[in-house]
Amino acid sequence: MIFYVEIKTNPQCCNKCGSRHVKKKGYVYRDFRGVPIGLSVIIQRKVQRLYCEECGKVLQEEICQVRIIVMNHLLYLRSFL
Q: How many CA atoms lie less than 13 Å away from 21 in the CB half-sphere?
């Protein structure tokens, strides 16, 4: 069972140098394993790639908020069991 999660965020700052001069540079997909509910559960999320104009690094947005959203989603799914 695969769930697709999309979170709309605006780029805040570079994780490396802290600069606020970042631009969006596409997406990558990340898979998270969920708690099995009779079937294996995979939660797939689009993660924004960012380009920092100050240090020139290409990085991915922080995903710590995803863990909170995924846990809330799993608690919601558990209510149907």
A: 6
